[in-house]
Amino acid sequence: MVKTAILSKIGPAEEVVNIESISQSDFDDSSILVKMQFAPINPADILMIEGNYASIPECPTEIGIEGSGIIEEVGNRITNFKVGDKVMCLSRTNWKTTQILKENEVIKLPESIDLQQAAMLKVNLASAYLMLTNFRKLSKGDWIIQNASNSAVGKNIIYLSKSLGLKTINLVRRDNVIDELFDIGADIVINSDDINVIKKELHSKVDAPISLGIDAVAGDATNLLASLVNESGLVINYGLLSGKPCTIDPLNIVFRSIVIEGFWLAKEMRSMDYMAISTMYNNLIPFITNKQIYVNVDKTFPLSKISEALKAAKAYGRNGKIQLDLQG
């Protein structure tokens, strides 16, 4: 039997997810059995559970967008994976003790990788990478501006921008995160949502137009970024932490030709075949193994404490991700 998190119905996350024991699915010659190790609880998980995501699941259903594990068994037709390999799972049913997957549902990881960090590779690092590389051609020395900069995606944007030679302006809401962002490579960090304060801060520090804005907040925050990027600039929205729809002043669209585009990793990956997905992650894995990118884990909960974990993941002011220890 497999212990797995089951979403019973749409509602408050800490109330509607339970741990159940279910039968293992059938194992055949093209199957891979993965003993799951770690899984983060992402904002997207919470949004889906509570009915605020792009797609609302039919309940009851297994859940969990990300997860890492170790292969326990491979079918006779599997040639690229072996027992003992560390893997990241591309499935969306990762909050469980074991799962049976196909070859194109796992990404092989190096033996040296930290599985807690690898469990957070699928969503945040890939999202940061694709937003920086797939929308506008950016060159070394270009400036970008983002909000929610101390989030996992925000920190990955700082790490990757530094490696790509880009400069980052990072908007935050707490003074106590400023030093940490400078430590990981941020060029400018500002705790304000007042456009005049921000413009004054940037006036003597930014030596080129701001090409790209990256928005995780929505609401009025979208228009703030749109007002700060250069004419014909782009703002990518990938989240709605404010719980409000994106707002933009028509002046920014009509007279300044600002473009707003949405980003959803699941949609982007549907347009990529397994080879492209595998290549992307293989390019990103060294950032973790070389410890160029490290995401804080605020607290780890055993799977049996799923309700407490979900409550903690919804709490404001955490110092990192909430993770599930799937064998704990």
Topology:
Layout: E1 2-7, H1 13-16, E2 17-22, E3 32-40, H2 43-49, E4 61-62, E5 68-74, E6 86-89, E7 98-101, E8 106-109, H3 115-118, H4 121-133, E9 143-146, H5 152-164, E10 167-171, H6 178-183, E11 188-190, H7 195-203, E12 210-215, H8 220-228, E13 234-237, H9 250-254, E14 259-262, H10 265-270, H11 274-289, E15 297-302, H12 306-314, E16 321-325
Helix pairs in contact: 4-5, 4-11
Q: Explain this structure to me?
A:
This protein has 328 residues and is α/β, with parallel strands linked by helices. It has helices spanning 13-16, 43-49, 115-118, 121-133, 152-164, 178-183, 195-203, 220-228, 250-254, 265-270, 274-289, 306-314, and strands at 2-7, 17-22, 32-40, 61-62, 68-74, 86-89, 98-101, 106-109, 143-146, 167-171, 188-190, 210-215, 234-237, 259-262, 297-302, 321-325. The strands form three sheets. Strands 3, 5, 6, 7, 8, 15 and 16 form a seven-stranded mixed beta sheet that branches. A six-stranded parallel beta sheet has the order 11-10-9-12-13-14, with helices on both faces. Strands 2-1-4 form a three-stranded antiparallel beta sheet. Helix 4 packs across helix 5 and helix 4 (121-133) crosses helix 11 (274-289). The protein is globular, with a radius of gyration of 20 Å.
